[in-house]
Structure formats: structure tokens, C-alpha cells
Amino acid sequence: MRAAAVLRIDAETEARGAVMRRAAGRGDLRRVRRGVYVGADHWQGIEPRQRNLIEIRAAIDATRSPSLVSHRSAAALWGLPVVGAGGTEVHLTVTGDSGPDNRRTYVRHAVAGPVPASEIDGIPVTSAARTVVDLARTDGFLTGAAAGDAALHRGAVTPDELQAALAAVGRGRGIRMARDVVAFVDGRSESAGESLSRVRMRELGVPAPDLQHVVRDDQGFVGRVDFWWEALGVVGEFDGRSKYGIDEADRSASDQLWEEKLREDRLRALGLTVVRWTWSDAWLGGPMLARLHTAGVGRMRRAPTS
Q1: What pLDDT band is residue 3 in, cutting at 50, 70 and 90?
Q2: SS3 for 79?
Q3: Which of 40, 9, 304 is nearest to 184 (CA)?
Q4: Whole-angstrom Cα distance, residue 306 to residue 301?
Q5: Is it the case that residue 101 has pLDDT exceeding 70?
């Protein structure tokens, strides 16, 4: 038995099932789902994406209907962030009369008509645009917005493709949320943290900032800031990460800190107020909001909670 192989128990190998289960009990194998095992050493030595592919293929084999990987699982294949949504189950979409099916290892979503599809690593998957729309419908505004921002930023989708995906879904559960997400997403948002920040600003009624604004002084380029409130002279930076147009890997931590200080000094010399916050600040909302208020960024009418 090769540790690197994915082992399956079928009609011809049922007799080996007890052997595999005992091996799993000893820690020699890892159970992926019923009847599917992988060598424990191999599992520990592979990247999360490879583990995900094994789990997805096992789930596809477990369903009798032709399936597309969808929702959170499709987002993982597309390399899109999944923010604010839990669960480790594989999500599959099937067409036809099959109803929804929630199992311990996979969740099956049934749809009536054809679903736009692509293929990643030989696995059938919903299109990037459909994936964003599905996430917004089932997992909410934050999850859909973070995935949609990333998909636009990376060129995986266009605004027109997102609109087409909305139209293809038509009516149904979560479609209003999906419409709101598609209207909100912005490819200028460069990280899940920036997307989270934008969503919290929307929820808390903070005036929408410009994104990735380039600031210059009489010496030239100062930086490209995450968030920019021009009328207030306020710069917002998520997680204190600045943007110099320089490969971060080419600079030591001390170099980065020094350049960060010089950059912020130049921003302040222009009369700008610089506000910084972390993931935790944005996740909680209140700490980020308090810092923005101190800088003079006030509230508008509060947006509906997503």
C-alpha cells in the first residue's frame, strides 16, 4: 500500500475496508470520506490546495449525479478568499430534479437549468462569476463581496460577466443580496482585508472612500493609499501595509519599517491625516470606526446589516 496513493474501498476491495479502518485508527491513513483514505504522511506533506483537491474529487465520486464544484469549494479552486463563512464540506451543484442534500462530507445544491462551468485541474467547477453570485446568495454580503473584489482585481471576471451570472440565476433565495454585492464590488480592492474594511464602512455608514489613490508631493511619488477621503484630507491604510511599487521580498523588515516611516512623514507633511487599522479592528468594526471618527470621517445614513 503506497502512502502517497488515494485508496478507495469499492465492491472488489470491501474486504480491505477493515484493514484500512484499522490503519486509520493507528494514524497510518487519513479518512477523507467513507471509503476513501490517503496516507497520513502524504496528507501532512502536501499543500492545503492539494488536500482540497483530494476532498473535492472524493465528494464528486460520492454523488451519483453529474456535478459541478460550487460555492465555497469553487472559490477555493479559483483562489478567491472566503471571508466570514465557515464549514469544511465540499459544495457541489447538480442540475435536474435532484433535491438539496447535506451530508457530513459534502453539500449538494440543486438547480433547474444549466450552470456556466469551467474546468480547473481537471475538475468541473462553476464559472468565477457564478461562484461569486452563489457565495453572495448563500453566505451573505461579506463573503460575496470579498470574493467578488478579488475576482475582479485578478481579472477572473468582468462586471458584465457578473451581471450575466445574476441574470442567469433569475429569482430565488438570496438574489437580492447577490444584486447588492454585484453593485458594490470593486476590482481596485487588493486584499480580503480591504474588502472587509469596505463592507464594514458600508454597514456603519462611513462615506465611501476612493480606492488606491496615488499621492504625490514636490519630490514625486509618495505612495498608493488603500483608502482616500479627498475632501477631508484623510488617508486610510489597512493593516499598516504601504505600497511602494517595490517587491517586499527584496527588503528587510527594518528597511520596510524605515520606508514606512518616511512615507508617512511625507503624507503628513502634505497636511493629510493617516488612519491605520488591523484585521481585528475591521472585523469588529467599532475600533476602525472610532479611529476614522477621530480623523473627521463622519457617518452617513447607516446601511442595512448584511
Answers
A1: very low
A2: coil
A3: 304
A4: 15
A5: no
CA angle at residue 125 from 123 to 130, to 5 degrees?
170
**93 burial level (CB within 10 Å; 0-12, 13-18, 19+):** buried
- What is the model's pLDDT at position 56? 82
Closest CA to 241 of 259, 214, 228: 259
Residue pLDDT, tens place only, 18-70: 766 777 677 767 776 666 777 777 777 777 777 778 888 877 777 767 788 99
Beta bridge partners of 289: none
C-alpha cell at 249: 521580498
Percent of the chain topping pLDDT 70: 77
Cα–Cα nearest to 77, from 2, 130, 114: 130
Q: How many CA atoms lie within 13 A of 19 on its CB side?
A: 8
DSSP 230: G
Whether the per-residue pLDDT at 242 is higher than 60: the answer is no
Q: Give yes or no for a contact between 38 and 32, defined as CB atoms under 8 angstroms apart.
A: yes
Residue 219 backbone class (left: φ over 0; alpha: ψ -120 to 50; beta: rest): alpha
> Average pLDDT, stretch 273-302?
91
CA pair distance 285, 197, nearest whole angstrom: 8
**Which grid coordinates belong to 219?**
519630490
pTM beyond 0.85? no
Q: Which domains does the chain have, with CATH numbers?
A: 6-46 (no CATH), 64-187 (no CATH), 195-294 (3.40.960)
- SS3 of 37, please? strand
pLDDT top residue among 273 and 59: 273
Return the exposure string of 161-192: e unless at least 16 CB atoms fall within 10 Å of the residue's CB, then b.
Answer: bbebbbebbeeeebeebbbbbbebbbbebbbb
- Which grid cell is 262? 518616511
Helices (H), 243-301: 253-269, 279-284, 286-294
